[in-house]
Design a protein that fits this description.
87% helix
Length: 134
């Protein structure tokens, strides 16, 4: 370890970090390129060839030219994903509410209300409650 100075170790770590960041940017650009629905196939192919043949220059120019729209597409994807999740939760809650434990709670509350009003007697209440909980 004496023949490899500390400064060289830091430089090696810096180069490794930059190399990993470079691949992250390259994959991000390629992912964004295929996610964009406004570009036609030829434009996507042209950008992809440009990014692969001249990687540093291609990614830098892509970020300069299409960086803002990259952010807008990411934000739209997050909004769409969140909306789909919320819709799924609503549907799951509604289907569970009609047949799951939430529905039983509502039915038991209605039974208790009927019993309090005198519409059903204690025996009918106990039979209906046993039927719901079975």
């Amino acid at each position: 370890m004496d023949d490899y100075p500390l400064l060289n170790l830091f430089l090696t770590m810096l180069y490794l970090f930059l190399w990993v960041m470079w691949f992250f940017l390259l994959f991000k650009v390629i992912t964004d390129l295929f996610r964009d629905h406004t570009l036609n196939g030829w434009a996507k192919a042209g950008w992809l060839i440009f990014v692969i043949l001249l990687p540093y220059l291609g990614v830098l120019i892509y970020l300069i030219v299409r960086g803002r729209s990259m952010h807008e597409r990411d934000a739209k994807a997050v909004k769409d994903s969140e909306a789909a999740f919320r819709q799924y939760v609503r549907e799951a809650a509604n289907s569970e509410g009609s047949s799951g434990s939430t529905g039983h709670v509502n039915d038991l509350a209605k039974l208790a209300e009927l019993k309090e009003k005198g519409a059903i007697n204690e025996d009918e209440y106990e039979r209906a409650k046993a039927k719901l909980l079975a």
